[in-house]
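To illustrate this point, we now present one chain and its tokenised fold:
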Amino acid sequence: MQIEPLQMTPVSMHAESHLGETQEPPVVKSFGEYLGDALGNVNALEKESERLKAALAAGQVEDISQVVVAAEKADIAVQLTLQVRNRAVEAYQEIMRMQV
């Protein structure tokens, strides 16, 4: 029994090649764009947490677990962001200490 190796081609490329369409090159984001998107996501989590806290204070939320989960998500996202920032600053400082 002969086993053929699998060819790993993305489905979208495979489907387009049969249709005769040209494939667009993948969109490449810069580091700044990725960083901006990540900070935007953290900000959105913080805003959602604040909105749910205000709704809870106004008596509009019946399930307090939603508020707690949103607050924890926002807190974890902020902690992660701070740790990434700290590591980036440490890496920058280490590079600046290198002698050329």
